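To: structure desk
From: M.T.
Subject: fold request, one chain
Message: Could you run this one when you get a chance? Sequence is below, nothing fancy, just the single chain.
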Amino acid sequence: MVQERTLPKFDTASVQITKEEGLMLYEDMVLGRFFEDKCAEMYYRGKMFGFVHLYNGQEAVSTGVIRAMRPGEDFVSSTYRDHVHALSAGVPAREVMAELFGKETGCSKGRGGSMHMFSAEHGLLGGYAFVAEGIPVAAGAAFQSKYRREVLGDPKADQVTACFFGDGAANNGQFFETLNMAALWKLPIIFVVENNKWAIGMAHERATSQPEIYKKASVFNMVGVEVDGMDVLAVRSVAQEAVARARAGEGPTLIEALTYRFRGHSLADPDELRSKAEKEFWFSRDPIKKLAAYMVEHNLTSEEELKAIDKKIQDLIDEAVKFAESSPEPDPSELYRFIFAEDE
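Reply: Done. Structure tokens follow.
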């Protein structure tokens, strides 16, 4: 079978978005898609090195969750597939691109590269190369928000943390340990499982005794939600509810977003394990095309306006590449800098 699991239905008639909101969501997803396409081009041209894991196809998850939060105030914990999470969190495209080029102007000063995007200014807690590594880190960020608010009496400490990870991480011990603590302490955190069906070359259904990950939330007396990760409006809706729940002190939520990566695991992956039929099933559900069709159908925009956004974003990406190429390499004299925290 092409699709073993039915995508959850979402009533778009129940959604009320303004033109401004719709265009914001569209622009953010297009930014992610065009950025990743340019990364592939630069990688194959020898401008980037190491492993590069692209996010094409999963844009509705990043945009739907992070743009339902307070960019720059709330926290985001990512994985090794972190470029688009960084962009949605507000990190400038030029800084993300420069990081991929290993330049001093990158968001991690050229020290992190593709898998370790970080920006304190934008609440980006980092990309984590090891599977499930970011889950306890995200819980720590959520704990400090709760501690500052409830123990130190800081009324402004109402930040919510979004923790992204893949379906493979849901079989890791850190997942279970951290969800247990988050539920016990009612931490203001959203655990977002980007279930793209494959953990490198391992099919999800073959790797776990319970493929429906959101149901695992019930073990911890936690709210668990399944959502169509190819529908940004559906993701945004459940994310808004989870954010409100967390900010009100009602504890964490586990969101399982059923999505799909349009490229191989990394740019070094020939992508020969997934069937043509499976790919075609998911390609037909492109989240960007879906939102564009919805907005045109509901008279929120026009094809011309969307094309203008596409052009604007492409120009932005081209400028980011020029910025990265012209930026300086890190100074060798600072090789050991940033290993430890510095006094301000």
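Reply (cont.): The longest helix spans residues 19-44. Let me know if you need anything else for the meeting.
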